[in-house]
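Hello Y.,

Per our agreement to keep a running log of every chain we model this quarter, I'm adding this entry. I've kept the format consistent with earlier entries: sequence first, then predicted structure.
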Amino acid sequence: MLDILQTPLDDLVRLLSSGEVELQSYLTELENVYERLEPAVLAFIPEADRFERLRRDANILQVRYPNPEERPPLFGVPIGVKDIFHVAGYETRAGSELPVEELQGFEASSIKRLRRAGALIMGKTVTTEFAYFAPGPSRNPYNLDHTPGGSSSGSAAAVAAKLCPVATGSQTIGSINRPAAFCGVVGLKPTYDRIPRDGVIPLSPSLDHIGLFTSDIRSMQLVASVICSDWQKSSGSNQPVLGVIKGPYLEHVAADGIEQFWDVCRTLEEAGYQIRHVNALSHMKEVV
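Predicted structure for the entry above:
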């Protein structure tokens, strides 16, 4: 029996676009998982009648694209949206308790691109306050006593828990890479401004990056091709070179952490990746 919630994104879109899996039936499956897991994970900002609204949005989408052969690349895919992104019809709170009217703005270009590609808005996901330090309530789906990481905490947790197949995030320092690692999902922090930053509440405009979370790399490639400017499909012929900092920086890592780190490096080398050791952060001792 097909487990639609475990299906890779490109296969999911094919099944939904063709009608082999009915979009409303898929949303019912998603609702069942949401009702079972979300009360503990707390990935999303609460929304009354979320799935009734999603079903209405799905009906509009189906009316707009009645011909399966003309359906867009993310037809019917629910996305979680980090609550620093402005989305038409939704409040933006940015994890804060400021008056809502002080934080509103025009819909982000990144969200417009996803909507034009046929994505449905699953809802706003929890963020640390203004994508900084103060955490929200989200928990790590793999261990509810642990954090999912921040600041894109709800987005990473939602994808890890299969509450949605795609979610947006942002990174100023480590707010995509860290929660992706904590939650065991794929995080994309692309080149600066590869995904437009307009319509997103900034933390540091010169450092902020807009990114994504998915459950696997194939899914990320599909969504990135829709949302990234000037996307070029990789030939897949070359493995990337991975830089590893050497020197005093790694001396501050706990023993079990550094052992795991080198195990990962060896696994990558065995898979054909090139590891290049780079001198950097030589003044780390003075910094800490």
